[in-house]
Amino acid sequence: MAKVSELRIAGMTLGEITKIYVSSTLGKVSIALFVILIGASIYAAVTLPPNFGSLWNNPLYWQIYPKDAPPAWVNYLSGNGYAPQVMFGREVSTQGSTVRFSFEVDNEYSVPWRDLYIVIKPMSGSSTFTAYLSIRRPDGYVITIGPLLISSMYTEVGTTQQVESQVIQFYLAKYGYMLTVPQGLSAVPYIFSTVSSGSLKPLKGIYVINLTLIANNPSKGIGNRLISLVLEGNVYGLMGTDAVGHDLWLGLLAGFPLSLEVGVVYALISTAIAIAVGLAAGFMGGVVDEVLTRLTDFVILIPAFVILVVLSVLLRLNIWQAMLYLAILSWGGAARIIRSITMQIRTAAYIELAKVGGASNLWILRNHALPQILPYALYLIVVGVPGAILTLAGLNFLNLAGANYPTWGNILYYAEQYGALESGMWWWVVPPGLLIVLVAVTFIVTALAIEPIVNPRLRR
Amino acid sequence: MGVPLLEVRNLSVNYTTMRGVVKALDRVSFDLDENETIAVVGETGSGKSTIAKAIVRVLEENARITGGEVIFEGVDVLKLSEEEFRRSYRWVKVAMVPQGSMNSLNPVLRVVDQMIEPLVLRGVPKVDAIKIAGEALESVGLPKDTLNRYPHQLSGGMKQRVIIAMAIQARPKLVILDEPTSALDVMTQANIMNLLKRLKREFKLSYIFITHDLALASELADKVLVLYAGRVAELGSADLVYTDPKHPYTQGLMTSVPTLREDKKLSFIPGEVPSLINPPSGCRFHPRCPYVMDICRREDPPMIDLKDGRKVACWLYH
After folding, report:
1. Which of A81, A300, B56, B100 could connect to A109 by a Cys-Cys bridge, CB 3.0–4.6 Å?
2. Which residues in chain A are contacts of B112 at CB distance < 8 A?
């Protein structure tokens, strides 16, 4: 016996649709791509801290990260041996006014660390510390650095006048070598170098770094703190860093959920408007049709992107508002097609039969018109998503319609501003570009894969 | 028999178009008894389908009933509210097989979804509606599993049967068949005609059989109504109209039916159906009539009752 209540799209149950979809190569590819996109989005949502937006926009937080560093895996490709970021941390909880501990680090790189940071968390304004570092090198020499005044969470060691002169002193005393540290650059790389036949060479081997930290106010003591030493690398992480030191991996990751959400919400809104307008115009006819068709023509004619740029500047839109305006500006073409589909349905012989059968307009709309429009609407949603993502990436690239979060388009904007491509910083430009393409391709492949469902003539 | 099942009295319908008012029906009257068939014949544009649509009240938006009554079982259904008519007459007592019913099935819905539509709309629970639809399909000679088919999986004849099943499933007293066999091949046509005859017997149906095919109409008709340019030309029992047509237009129609056995030249009526926006003065048929008289050009012919019970609108019989 026939069942009636089952949901059907284009005359097929969801099970049948799934079967057709999965059986096609494009369907499989699109499912794989979706798994990647959705997986990355979930991973981002789970791993990124809730205040990631404010962290990203706080340059202080990124101070200890290397700047302009390529991804760590370039070592495998170039064999250059760039030292990666290294961090040692220790939790201390003491009433005493002095702590002392040591770390070991193996320098096996031909390009040593750029700088050294002492990080103390938490750090309040009133308490300050004095730090001494003594570094035992593989050649048995010891470089002593200090005393350093520590009054903030991050203390950069390498560029202070005092450290510079101490390193220069060391080179003079041990090698009789007159070291010149270029203006504004860190002296830290020279700690990991030696002089051989009159020129500087990296010194590989085990280094032992001893840190002595003394509270300047002995009555307060050290207290409960996390004390870390950070060796700033020349390469960083999976995706490298930008000029501020932002870990691009995190920035790119944050773009996944944002892009998908913005794209999907856009597609739903614009499709809903198109269906409402198209159905009303096509079904009611007369004055309603006339008015809505003129409105549709108007919406089709106006250049959405240009208006969006203007609105973004004037109203300082964020990405969500820009998405909303884009949806309001771009339903025209779809509405026109839905109107013509609806008109075709309205004048069809089966509508007359339905009317003879006693169907009201609303019934006809729901039971005869909507099921035929639904597959097209599905298609509209799928092709709408990449369109919105690309358009909004374009806006972001103009540094408009930004979000609290870094968007891929926004990362590209800063890359362009910094001249990243000209200076060969491909890791700052290529990945966000590729990700935008990836999302677009995913939805386009999906659109191709659902075509046999939407258009029964393509079914085998 | 006292009151006829259906009485149509002076029914007039106008269409408002861009070019003017089309007088599609002008004072059309006829009666129909229970289990009786009236064939409405005429050329394209004579107003055949308008009669059907007016009786079930599904005229286009630009059409207006300007006068007359449609009395069904003693009730003037034109005076009922739309809701009342929908609930207790349309499809319940008067069903319709619309013109071009080959295309009257929504291609994206299964047969069952469409068949139960008029029932569900009248509050029949879905389960019962499906059962009724299944039985209706069996009574038109289709297997029950046709319910789960889509229209494109059915042949033209099967689609026609589905539509007929839809029309009879609520057990109406009157079924209006608007060219039910056009676009079907002759074998299928014959099949459908036999089916219609059988259903008429089984369910005691009355038919209004609208067609331009006189030969086909003779199969089923008890009465014939010849329509010309929105007016009744001749109305009478099928035997009389077929054997001895009185109105010149009916005569012309009869001689234009091809026959298989005789090798005679097919005659036709010269000229064409007049414009209904600006119909000819007097008798609307006079420009094409071979027996045209002066009075025909000036005055409308009255409806003349002949001795054999026929009605003819022609000055010849005055």
Report:
1. A81
2. 2, 4
Closest CA to A270 of A386, A435, A409: A386
Residues of B in contact with A4 (CB under 8 A): 112-113, 116, 126, 130
Q: Give B149 to chain A, closest Cα distance, Å.
A: 10
Closest C-alpha among A263, A262, A252 to residue A414: A252
b/e for B190-216, b at 16 or more Cβ within 10 A? ebbbebbeebbeeeebbbbbbbbbbeb
Q: What is the mean pLDDT of chain B?
A: 88
pLDDT, position A459? 55
Residue contact A356–B56, C-beta within 8 A: yes
Give the ipTM of the model, two decimals please: 0.75
pTM of the model: 0.77
pLDDT tens per residue, range B222-267 = 999 999 988 999 999 999 999 889 999 999 888 887 777 777 777 7
- Chain B residue with CA closest to A6: the answer is B113
Among chain B residues, the shortest Cα distance to A454 is held by B108
What is the separation, in whole angstroms, between the first and last Cα of chain A?
A: 27
Distance CA B181, CA B185 (A): 8
Q: Is B184 left (phi over 0), alpha (psi -120 to 50) or beta?
A: beta
Nearest Cβ partner for B86 among A358, A371, A372: A358
Contact A196, A204 (CB under 8 A): no
Chain A CB contacts of B149 under 8 Å are none
Note the pLDDT tens digit of each residue in B139-197: 999 999 999 888 888 988 899 999 999 999 989 999 999 888 877 888 888 999 999 99
CA separation for the pair A448, A452 (Å, rounded): 8
Cα separation, A425 vs A408, whole angstroms: 16
Residue in B254, A430, B173 with CA at minimum distance from that of residue B245: B254
For chain A (460 residues), the mean pLDDT of every run of 10, in chain order, is 54 77 88 93 92 88 89 84 89 87 90 90 82 91 89 87 90 88 87 88 91 86 88 91 92 92 94 94 90 95 92 92 94 93 87 83 86 86 90 90 84 91 91 92 89 66
pLDDT on residue A1: 44
Q: Which of these, A100, A158, A89, lies nearest to A129 by C-alpha position? A: A100
pLDDT of residue A210: 93
Measured distance CA(B316)–CA(B292) in Å, rounded: 9
pLDDT at B258: 77
Closest by Cβ to A2, choosing from B103, B106, B148: B148
Give chain A's count of helices (H) and strands (E).
16, 12
Which of these, A246, A269, A167, lies nearest to A427 by C-alpha position? A246
- A147 SS3 class: strand
Identify the closest residue of chain B to A350 by CA–CA distance.
B104
Tell me which H or E stretch contains A428: helix A426-454
Bridge partners for A284 per DSSP: none
Q: Which of A283, A288, A353 to mutate to test the interface with B (most CBs of B within 10 A)?
A: A353
| 3-class DSSP assignment, residue A52 | helix
Choose from A5, A12, A356 for mutation: most chain B CBs within 10 A: A356
**String of b and e for A304-341 (b: at least 16 CB within 10 Å)?**
beeebbebbeeeebebbebbbbbbebbbbebbbbbbeb
